[in-house]
Amino acid sequence: MRSETSEADIFKDDTQEDTQKGRFLSLSLSEEVFALEIKYVTEIVGVQPITPIPEVPDYVKGIINLRGKIIPVIDMRLKFKKPSTEYTDRTCIIVVDIEQVSVGLIVDNVVEVVSIPDKDIVPPPDYRTGIQNRYIKGIGMVETKVILLLDCKKILSKDDIEDVLEIQKVRGDLL
Asked: Looking at the whole model, is its pTM more than 0.90?
């Protein structure tokens, strides 16, 4: 019995029992493999025309109209300070709901849905190691692969969420 926070506690959701517990959507950015908890993912769509919007951070590429709903999109390569690349037929937008806000995350490609039991998840390295892990909630091990588990609630800062809500409010005022 441990007195510290266990790996299983990293993904605990106090609000409800999570039927998708331990299931992650893995994706790639450059050569790295990341994963999002499947409970945040609402859909995956191909890259489509993006309308740029002024006065937002460079990683916010703009907005898309997804069946009448305005969705801001973030290029995860730019968010993670990786070099930009042209979008390909494998590039896609993962639509997630974070803090009751829908956002599209542009990624190089979706790999697969994986199940990672709690015993195969460890906390990210301590910040004193010099590894930047503000977006990483844990590290999952699947066979011989290491997958960085993203913390969806930290992908967007409070300012990002306010910007998204403002974009959606302006769009609502125009209708």
From this structure: no
